[in-house]
Amino acid sequence: APESPMSSSESVKSLTELVQQPCPAIETSKEGKVQEPGDPPASDSQPTTPLPLSGHSALSIQELVAMSPELDTYGITKRVKEVLTDNNLGQRLFGETILGLTQGSVSDLLARPKPWHKLSLKGREPFVRMQLWLNDPNNVEKLMDMKRMEKKAYMKRRHSSVSDSQPCEPSSAGIDYSQGASPQPQHQLKKPRVVLAPEEKEALKRAYQQKPYPSPKTIEELATQLNLKTSTVINWFHNYRSRIRRELFIEEIQAGSQSQAGASDSPSARSGRAAHSSEGDSCDGTLAETTDEGRPRGPRRSSPPGSHSSGEPLEAPPNSAPKEDASTSAASTAGPTGESPYRPKESSEKSPSLPSTSSTPAGPGPQKPPSLQSLFSFPEAAGSKNTRDNTLRKKKAANLNNIIHRLEKAASREEPVEWEF
DNA sequence: TCCAAGTCAATAGC
DNA sequence: GCTATTGACTTGGA
Question: Buried b / exposed e across A170-202, counting CB within 10 Å, b at 16+?
Protein backbone atom coordinates (compact mmCIF):
# COMPACT_ATOMS: atom_id res chain seq x y z
CA ALA A 1 0.00 0.00 0.00
CA PRO A 2 1.30 3.37 -0.85
CA GLU A 3 1.99 5.83 1.83
CA SER A 4 -0.88 7.95 2.74
CA PRO A 5 -1.20 11.20 0.95
CA MET A 6 -1.93 12.79 4.24
CA SER A 7 1.11 13.85 6.02
CA SER A 8 2.23 15.03 9.35
CA SER A 9 0.68 14.61 12.66
CA GLU A 10 -2.72 15.47 11.45
CA SER A 11 -3.21 12.29 9.61
CA VAL A 12 -1.90 10.36 12.49
CA LYS A 13 -4.21 12.11 14.79
CA SER A 14 -7.29 11.48 12.79
CA LEU A 15 -6.30 7.94 12.31
CA THR A 16 -5.73 7.56 15.96
CA GLU A 17 -9.21 8.77 16.50
CA LEU A 18 -10.53 6.39 13.97
CA VAL A 19 -8.80 3.45 15.39
CA GLN A 20 -8.94 4.22 19.02
CA GLN A 21 -12.27 5.76 19.54
CA PRO A 22 -15.61 4.34 18.91
CA CYS A 23 -16.36 4.91 15.34
CA PRO A 24 -19.60 6.13 13.99
CA ALA A 25 -20.73 2.90 12.51
CA ILE A 26 -19.62 0.26 10.21
CA GLU A 27 -20.36 1.20 6.71
CA THR A 28 -21.34 -1.27 4.20
CA SER A 29 -19.12 0.22 1.66
CA LYS A 30 -17.29 -2.09 -0.61
CA GLU A 31 -14.33 0.16 -0.32
CA GLY A 32 -13.54 -1.48 2.85
CA LYS A 33 -13.00 -4.70 1.23
CA VAL A 34 -9.40 -5.01 0.47
CA GLN A 35 -9.31 -8.65 0.08
CA GLU A 36 -7.08 -10.47 -2.20
CA PRO A 37 -8.74 -12.40 -4.92
CA GLY A 38 -7.99 -15.54 -3.10
CA ASP A 39 -9.65 -14.44 0.02
CA PRO A 40 -12.34 -16.44 1.54
CA PRO A 41 -15.59 -15.53 0.00
CA ALA A 42 -16.73 -14.42 3.34
CA SER A 43 -16.95 -10.76 2.93
CA ASP A 44 -17.86 -10.40 -0.61
CA SER A 45 -21.46 -11.05 -0.37
CA GLN A 46 -21.97 -9.99 3.10
CA PRO A 47 -23.45 -6.96 4.59
CA THR A 48 -20.71 -6.66 7.07
CA THR A 49 -17.61 -5.47 5.50
CA PRO A 50 -14.42 -6.34 7.20
CA LEU A 51 -13.50 -2.79 7.60
CA PRO A 52 -15.33 0.31 8.60
CA LEU A 53 -13.91 3.17 6.75
CA SER A 54 -16.37 5.76 7.58
CA GLY A 55 -15.01 9.20 7.57
CA HIS A 56 -12.02 8.09 5.64
CA SER A 57 -13.77 7.31 2.49
CA ALA A 58 -11.22 5.82 0.26
CA LEU A 59 -8.73 4.65 2.74
CA SER A 60 -7.83 1.11 2.17
CA ILE A 61 -7.14 -1.17 5.02
CA GLN A 62 -3.51 -1.13 4.10
CA GLU A 63 -3.44 2.60 4.36
CA LEU A 64 -5.17 2.49 7.65
CA VAL A 65 -2.72 -0.04 8.90
CA ALA A 66 0.20 1.92 7.65
CA MET A 67 -0.93 4.98 9.46
CA SER A 68 -2.25 3.32 12.50
CA PRO A 69 -0.78 4.27 15.82
CA GLU A 70 0.69 1.56 17.92
CA LEU A 71 -2.06 -0.73 19.07
CA ASP A 72 -2.23 -2.82 22.15
CA THR A 73 -2.52 -6.19 20.51
CA TYR A 74 -2.95 -8.04 23.75
CA GLY A 75 -5.56 -5.72 25.01
CA ILE A 76 -7.38 -5.95 21.75
CA THR A 77 -7.40 -9.71 21.61
CA LYS A 78 -8.40 -9.87 25.21
CA ARG A 79 -11.37 -7.67 24.60
CA VAL A 80 -12.30 -9.49 21.46
CA LYS A 81 -12.24 -12.78 23.30
CA GLU A 82 -14.40 -11.35 25.99
CA VAL A 83 -16.91 -9.98 23.59
CA LEU A 84 -17.04 -13.19 21.62
CA THR A 85 -17.47 -15.43 24.61
CA ASP A 86 -19.86 -13.12 26.35
CA ASN A 87 -22.07 -13.13 23.33
CA ASN A 88 -21.54 -16.67 22.37
CA LEU A 89 -20.03 -15.81 19.05
CA GLY A 90 -17.66 -18.18 17.38
CA GLN A 91 -14.20 -17.60 16.08
CA ARG A 92 -15.18 -18.86 12.70
CA LEU A 93 -17.96 -16.38 12.27
CA PHE A 94 -15.84 -13.57 13.60
CA GLY A 95 -12.86 -14.53 11.54
CA GLU A 96 -14.64 -14.93 8.32
CA THR A 97 -16.85 -11.92 8.53
CA ILE A 98 -14.69 -9.44 10.33
CA LEU A 99 -11.14 -10.41 9.69
CA GLY A 100 -11.32 -12.44 6.55
CA LEU A 101 -9.40 -15.23 8.24
CA THR A 102 -10.16 -18.81 8.99
CA GLN A 103 -11.01 -20.13 12.39
CA GLY A 104 -7.61 -21.59 13.01
CA SER A 105 -5.90 -18.36 12.26
CA VAL A 106 -8.25 -16.49 14.51
CA SER A 107 -7.67 -18.91 17.31
CA ASP A 108 -3.97 -18.52 16.94
CA LEU A 109 -4.18 -14.80 16.74
CA LEU A 110 -6.34 -14.47 19.79
CA ALA A 111 -4.29 -16.86 21.82
CA ARG A 112 -0.90 -15.60 20.84
CA PRO A 113 -0.98 -12.08 19.59
CA LYS A 114 2.36 -10.71 18.70
CA PRO A 115 3.35 -7.34 20.01
CA TRP A 116 2.57 -4.59 17.62
CA HIS A 117 6.13 -3.66 16.91
CA LYS A 118 6.97 -7.18 15.89
CA LEU A 119 4.27 -7.32 13.31
CA SER A 120 4.63 -6.63 9.66
CA LEU A 121 2.09 -4.43 7.99
CA LYS A 122 0.21 -7.46 6.91
CA GLY A 123 0.30 -8.89 10.37
CA ARG A 124 -1.08 -5.70 11.80
CA GLU A 125 -4.08 -5.76 9.59
CA PRO A 126 -6.19 -8.13 11.64
CA PHE A 127 -5.53 -6.12 14.75
CA VAL A 128 -6.62 -2.94 13.10
CA ARG A 129 -9.73 -4.72 11.96
CA MET A 130 -10.34 -6.00 15.44
CA GLN A 131 -9.88 -2.58 16.91
CA LEU A 132 -12.27 -1.08 14.45
CA TRP A 133 -14.71 -3.79 15.17
CA LEU A 134 -14.44 -3.19 18.87
CA ASN A 135 -15.08 0.43 18.26
CA ASP A 136 -18.24 -0.28 16.40
CA PRO A 137 -21.14 0.10 18.77
CA ASN A 138 -23.16 -2.35 16.77
CA ASN A 139 -20.49 -4.92 16.38
CA VAL A 140 -22.13 -7.65 18.37
CA GLU A 141 -25.48 -6.98 16.93
CA LYS A 142 -24.19 -7.29 13.43
CA LEU A 143 -22.36 -10.47 14.12
CA MET A 144 -25.44 -11.88 15.76
CA ASP A 145 -27.37 -11.01 12.66
CA MET A 146 -24.84 -12.83 10.60
CA LYS A 147 -25.16 -15.80 12.85
CA ARG A 148 -28.90 -15.80 12.53
CA MET A 149 -28.70 -15.50 8.81
CA GLU A 150 -26.28 -18.33 8.58
CA LYS A 151 -28.49 -20.47 10.65
CA LYS A 152 -31.47 -19.60 8.56
CA ALA A 153 -29.64 -20.40 5.40
CA TYR A 154 -28.47 -23.63 6.87
CA MET A 155 -31.96 -24.65 7.83
CA LYS A 156 -33.24 -23.70 4.47
CA ARG A 157 -30.61 -25.79 2.83
CA ARG A 158 -31.35 -28.68 5.04
CA HIS A 159 -34.98 -28.62 4.24
CA SER A 160 -34.72 -28.10 0.60
CA SER A 161 -31.61 -30.10 0.97
CA VAL A 162 -30.36 -33.24 -0.47
CA SER A 163 -30.99 -31.71 -3.80
CA ASP A 164 -27.75 -30.12 -3.01
CA SER A 165 -27.44 -28.85 -6.49
CA GLN A 166 -27.26 -25.57 -4.78
CA PRO A 167 -24.09 -24.16 -6.19
CA CYS A 168 -23.14 -22.98 -2.82
CA GLU A 169 -25.47 -20.09 -2.67
CA PRO A 170 -24.22 -18.48 0.42
CA SER A 171 -25.27 -15.14 -0.83
CA SER A 172 -26.23 -12.76 1.79
CA ALA A 173 -26.35 -15.13 4.61
CA GLY A 174 -22.80 -15.82 5.22
CA ILE A 175 -21.27 -18.91 3.91
CA ASP A 176 -21.25 -22.42 4.93
CA TYR A 177 -17.57 -22.96 4.79
CA SER A 178 -17.76 -25.63 7.27
CA GLN A 179 -18.31 -28.94 5.69
CA GLY A 180 -16.75 -29.67 2.43
CA ALA A 181 -18.96 -27.28 0.60
CA SER A 182 -15.87 -26.46 -1.28
CA PRO A 183 -16.70 -24.93 -4.56
CA GLN A 184 -13.63 -26.46 -6.05
CA PRO A 185 -14.67 -29.77 -7.41
CA GLN A 186 -11.42 -30.95 -8.80
CA HIS A 187 -9.64 -31.18 -5.55
CA GLN A 188 -10.26 -34.82 -5.25
CA LEU A 189 -6.95 -36.37 -4.58
CA LYS A 190 -5.85 -34.57 -1.53
CA LYS A 191 -2.82 -35.95 0.05
CA PRO A 192 -3.45 -36.91 3.60
CA ARG A 193 -2.13 -34.68 6.27
CA VAL A 194 1.12 -35.74 7.77
CA VAL A 195 0.98 -36.22 11.48
CA LEU A 196 4.29 -36.63 13.16
CA ALA A 197 4.58 -39.20 15.87
CA PRO A 198 5.73 -38.05 19.27
CA GLU A 199 9.04 -39.81 18.84
CA GLU A 200 9.56 -38.05 15.60
CA LYS A 201 8.83 -34.73 17.12
CA GLU A 202 11.14 -35.45 19.97
CA ALA A 203 13.89 -36.34 17.59
CA LEU A 204 13.32 -33.20 15.60
CA LYS A 205 13.34 -31.12 18.71
CA ARG A 206 16.59 -32.60 19.79
CA ALA A 207 18.01 -31.88 16.41
CA TYR A 208 16.72 -28.37 16.73
CA GLN A 209 18.41 -27.98 20.06
CA GLN A 210 21.66 -28.80 18.48
CA LYS A 211 21.15 -26.87 15.34
CA PRO A 212 18.20 -24.61 14.86
CA TYR A 213 19.30 -24.13 11.29
CA PRO A 214 20.37 -27.50 10.07
CA SER A 215 22.24 -27.82 6.86
CA PRO A 216 20.62 -29.49 3.90
CA LYS A 217 22.73 -32.46 4.65
CA THR A 218 21.50 -32.68 8.19
CA ILE A 219 17.97 -32.28 7.00
CA GLU A 220 18.49 -35.05 4.59
CA GLU A 221 19.86 -37.27 7.30
CA LEU A 222 17.03 -36.47 9.61
CA ALA A 223 14.52 -37.20 6.95
CA THR A 224 16.13 -40.51 6.21
CA GLN A 225 16.43 -41.55 9.79
CA LEU A 226 12.89 -40.59 10.60
CA ASN A 227 11.54 -41.79 7.35
CA LEU A 228 10.08 -38.43 6.56
CA LYS A 229 10.09 -36.38 3.47
CA THR A 230 12.77 -33.76 3.47
CA SER A 231 10.15 -31.15 2.83
CA THR A 232 8.41 -32.26 5.97
CA VAL A 233 11.57 -31.83 7.95
CA ILE A 234 12.20 -28.46 6.41
CA ASN A 235 8.68 -27.37 7.11
CA TRP A 236 8.93 -28.61 10.62
CA PHE A 237 12.01 -26.55 11.29
CA HIS A 238 10.44 -23.50 9.79
CA ASN A 239 7.31 -23.90 11.79
CA TYR A 240 9.09 -24.72 14.98
CA ARG A 241 11.40 -21.76 14.77
CA SER A 242 8.57 -19.50 13.96
CA ARG A 243 6.40 -20.76 16.76
CA ILE A 244 9.12 -20.65 19.30
CA ARG A 245 9.84 -17.15 18.26
CA ARG A 246 6.29 -16.28 18.89
CA GLU A 247 6.37 -17.80 22.32
CA LEU A 248 9.36 -15.67 23.02
CA PHE A 249 7.53 -12.55 22.05
CA ILE A 250 4.99 -13.36 24.63
CA GLU A 251 7.67 -14.08 27.16
CA GLU A 252 9.21 -10.76 26.44
CA ILE A 253 6.01 -8.96 26.94
CA GLN A 254 5.26 -10.76 30.12
CA ALA A 255 8.68 -10.15 31.50
CA GLY A 256 8.55 -6.60 30.32
CA SER A 257 5.25 -5.92 31.92
CA GLN A 258 6.46 -7.40 35.15
CA SER A 259 9.59 -5.40 35.25
CA GLN A 260 7.89 -2.25 34.29
CA ALA A 261 4.92 -2.59 36.47
CA GLY A 262 3.24 0.60 35.67
CA ALA A 263 6.40 2.54 35.27
CA SER A 264 5.96 3.48 31.70
CA ASP A 265 3.70 5.72 29.84
CA SER A 266 3.85 3.42 26.92
CA PRO A 267 0.56 3.26 25.18
CA SER A 268 0.98 -0.25 24.18
CA ALA A 269 0.42 -3.72 25.18
CA ARG A 270 2.05 -4.19 28.45
CA SER A 271 -0.86 -3.64 30.70
CA GLY A 272 -3.19 -5.61 28.58
CA ARG A 273 -0.84 -8.46 28.47
CA ALA A 274 -0.36 -8.56 32.15
CA ALA A 275 -3.98 -9.14 32.61
CA HIS A 276 -4.08 -11.45 29.75
CA SER A 277 -1.38 -13.66 31.03
CA SER A 278 -3.30 -14.43 34.08
CA GLU A 279 -5.56 -16.44 31.97
CA GLY A 280 -2.73 -18.78 31.42
CA ASP A 281 -4.20 -19.97 28.22
CA SER A 282 -2.19 -18.33 25.66
CA CYS A 283 1.35 -19.35 25.56
CA ASP A 284 1.71 -22.61 27.26
CA GLY A 285 0.28 -24.74 24.62
CA THR A 286 1.87 -24.63 21.30
CA LEU A 287 5.37 -25.81 21.61
CA ALA A 288 5.03 -27.43 24.90
CA GLU A 289 3.06 -30.03 23.13
CA THR A 290 0.95 -30.43 26.13
CA THR A 291 -1.89 -31.82 24.23
CA ASP A 292 -0.01 -33.58 21.68
CA GLU A 293 2.64 -35.69 23.15
CA GLY A 294 1.89 -39.24 23.70
CA ARG A 295 -1.02 -39.42 21.44
CA PRO A 296 -0.43 -39.88 17.84
CA ARG A 297 -3.50 -38.61 16.30
CA GLY A 298 -5.22 -39.02 13.10
CA PRO A 299 -4.46 -41.22 10.21
CA ARG A 300 -0.83 -40.61 10.43
CA ARG A 301 1.74 -41.83 8.10
CA SER A 302 3.32 -45.11 8.72
CA SER A 303 5.43 -44.64 11.75
CA PRO A 304 9.15 -44.66 11.39
CA PRO A 305 9.99 -48.22 10.79
CA GLY A 306 12.56 -49.75 12.97
CA SER A 307 14.53 -46.70 13.69
CA HIS A 308 11.93 -44.67 15.52
CA SER A 309 13.15 -43.30 18.76
CA SER A 310 16.18 -45.44 19.04
CA GLY A 311 17.24 -44.09 15.77
CA GLU A 312 17.05 -40.57 16.92
CA PRO A 313 19.67 -38.74 15.14
CA LEU A 314 21.00 -36.49 17.75
CA GLU A 315 21.70 -36.65 21.38
CA ALA A 316 19.67 -34.40 23.49
CA PRO A 317 21.64 -31.78 25.24
CA PRO A 318 21.07 -31.64 28.94
CA ASN A 319 18.72 -28.76 29.01
CA SER A 320 16.87 -29.25 25.85
CA ALA A 321 13.46 -30.71 25.45
CA PRO A 322 10.90 -27.98 25.58
CA LYS A 323 8.64 -30.71 26.64
CA GLU A 324 10.08 -30.82 30.09
CA ASP A 325 8.58 -27.47 30.59
CA ALA A 326 5.37 -28.79 29.35
CA SER A 327 5.08 -31.05 32.28
CA THR A 328 5.14 -28.10 34.55
CA SER A 329 3.46 -25.64 32.38
CA ALA A 330 0.07 -26.34 33.71
CA ALA A 331 0.98 -24.35 36.72
CA SER A 332 2.75 -21.53 35.07
CA THR A 333 2.66 -19.43 32.06
CA ALA A 334 6.35 -19.52 31.81
CA GLY A 335 7.62 -20.27 28.39
CA PRO A 336 7.52 -23.85 27.43
CA THR A 337 10.67 -23.81 25.54
CA GLY A 338 14.23 -23.36 26.34
CA GLU A 339 15.51 -22.10 23.11
CA SER A 340 15.39 -19.08 21.01
CA PRO A 341 15.08 -18.82 17.34
CA TYR A 342 16.26 -15.27 17.20
CA ARG A 343 18.49 -14.47 14.40
CA PRO A 344 20.28 -11.25 14.90
CA LYS A 345 20.12 -10.25 11.34
CA GLU A 346 16.41 -10.67 11.08
CA SER A 347 15.77 -8.99 14.30
CA SER A 348 17.88 -6.06 13.50
CA GLU A 349 16.11 -5.55 10.31
CA LYS A 350 12.63 -6.02 11.33
CA SER A 351 12.16 -5.35 14.93
CA PRO A 352 13.08 -2.59 17.23
CA SER A 353 14.37 -4.68 20.01
CA LEU A 354 12.38 -5.26 23.09
CA PRO A 355 9.18 -3.76 24.14
CA SER A 356 10.60 -2.82 27.44
CA THR A 357 12.18 0.17 25.91
CA SER A 358 8.74 1.16 24.87
CA SER A 359 9.96 4.12 23.02
CA THR A 360 8.41 2.84 19.92
CA PRO A 361 6.89 5.71 18.10
CA ALA A 362 3.39 5.40 16.93
CA GLY A 363 3.10 3.61 13.70
CA PRO A 364 5.32 1.36 11.75
CA GLY A 365 8.04 3.75 11.03
CA PRO A 366 11.64 2.80 10.60
CA GLN A 367 12.75 1.08 13.67
CA LYS A 368 15.98 1.15 15.44
CA PRO A 369 17.98 -1.97 14.97
CA PRO A 370 18.67 -3.62 18.21
CA SER A 371 22.14 -4.15 19.35
CA LEU A 372 23.13 -7.60 20.29
CA GLN A 373 22.88 -6.46 23.80
CA SER A 374 19.28 -5.61 23.39
CA LEU A 375 18.61 -8.95 21.90
CA PHE A 376 19.83 -10.48 25.05
CA SER A 377 18.39 -8.03 27.37
CA PHE A 378 15.34 -9.73 28.63
CA PRO A 379 14.11 -7.59 31.38
CA GLU A 380 16.02 -8.54 34.43
CA ALA A 381 13.34 -7.63 36.82
CA ALA A 382 11.70 -10.79 35.80
CA GLY A 383 14.53 -12.50 37.55
CA SER A 384 12.69 -12.13 40.73
CA LYS A 385 11.32 -15.52 40.01
CA ASN A 386 13.80 -18.28 39.75
CA THR A 387 11.93 -20.34 37.28
CA ARG A 388 11.59 -17.55 34.92
CA ASP A 389 15.17 -16.70 35.45
CA ASN A 390 16.19 -20.13 34.43
CA THR A 391 13.99 -20.07 31.44
CA LEU A 392 15.46 -16.83 30.34
CA ARG A 393 18.91 -18.13 30.92
CA LYS A 394 18.21 -21.04 28.70
CA LYS A 395 16.85 -18.79 26.08
CA LYS A 396 19.84 -16.60 26.20
CA ALA A 397 22.01 -19.60 25.72
CA ALA A 398 19.96 -20.64 22.80
CA ASN A 399 20.21 -17.14 21.46
CA LEU A 400 23.92 -17.45 21.54
CA ASN A 401 23.69 -20.60 19.55
CA ASN A 402 21.73 -18.85 16.93
CA ILE A 403 24.03 -15.95 16.82
CA ILE A 404 26.96 -18.21 16.48
CA HIS A 405 25.20 -19.89 13.68
CA ARG A 406 24.63 -16.59 12.00
CA LEU A 407 28.15 -15.49 12.54
CA GLU A 408 29.45 -18.65 11.03
CA LYS A 409 27.21 -18.27 8.11
CA ALA A 410 28.10 -14.67 7.65
CA ALA A 411 31.75 -15.48 7.92
CA SER A 412 31.50 -18.15 5.35
CA ARG A 413 29.81 -15.73 3.05
CA GLU A 414 32.17 -13.00 3.97
CA GLU A 415 29.32 -10.71 4.28
CA PRO A 416 29.86 -7.71 6.46
CA VAL A 417 28.70 -8.18 9.92
CA GLU A 418 27.19 -5.08 11.27
CA TRP A 419 26.41 -6.12 14.72
CA GLU A 420 27.73 -4.14 17.53
CA PHE A 421 29.02 -5.80 20.57
C1' DT B 1 17.89 -20.22 -2.56
C1' DC B 2 16.87 -19.56 2.07
C1' DC B 3 14.25 -17.72 5.52
C1' DA B 4 10.44 -15.25 8.15
C1' DA B 5 5.82 -14.05 8.38
C1' DG B 6 1.30 -15.00 7.66
C1' DT B 7 -2.17 -18.01 6.64
C1' DC B 8 -4.90 -22.16 5.38
C1' DA B 9 -7.10 -26.21 6.48
C1' DA B 10 -7.16 -30.93 8.46
C1' DT B 11 -7.63 -32.88 12.59
C1' DA B 12 -8.23 -33.90 17.66
C1' DG B 13 -10.54 -33.27 21.69
C1' DC B 14 -13.90 -31.07 24.39
C1' DG C 1 -20.20 -27.26 16.94
C1' DC C 2 -16.50 -25.14 18.92
C1' DT C 3 -11.49 -24.16 19.73
C1' DA C 4 -6.50 -25.48 19.60
C1' DT C 5 -2.89 -27.48 17.19
C1' DT C 6 0.11 -28.06 13.44
C1' DG C 7 1.94 -29.56 8.68
C1' DA C 8 1.93 -27.26 4.47
C1' DC C 9 1.67 -23.46 1.52
C1' DT C 10 2.27 -18.45 -0.23
C1' DT C 11 4.54 -14.29 -0.36
C1' DG C 12 8.22 -11.25 -0.08
C1' DG C 13 12.89 -9.82 1.34
C1' DA C 14 17.82 -10.46 1.05
Answer: beebbbbbeeeeeeeeeeeeeeeeeebbbbbbb
| Measured CA distances, A207 to A211, A223, A305 (Å) | 6, 11, 19
CB of residue A373 closer than 7 A to nucleic acid strand C?
Answer: no
Give the integer Cα–Cα distance in Å for A269 and A117: 10
In this complex, the answer to whether residue A103 has its CB under 7 A from any atom of chain C, a nucleic strand, is yes
Using the predicted structure, report yes or no on whether residue A353 has a pLDDT greater than 60.
no
Measured CA to C1', what is the nucleotide nearest A350?
A: B4
User: pTM score, two decimals?
Assistant: 0.62
Range with the lowest mean pLDDT among A4-18, A257-271, A344-358, A401-415? Answer: A344-358
Residue A331: what residue type? Answer: A
A343 touches strand B (CB under 7 A): yes
Closest-approach nucleotide to residue A301, Cα vs C1': C7
Q: How confident is the model over A138-163, as pLDDT tens digits?
A: 999 999 998 988 888 877 777 775 55
The nucleotide minimizing the C1' distance to residue A90's CA is C2
Nucleotide nearest to A108 (CA to C1'): C4
User: In the 55-114 stretch of chain A, whose C-beta falls under 7 Å of nucleic acid strand B?
Assistant: 95, 100-105, 108-109, 114
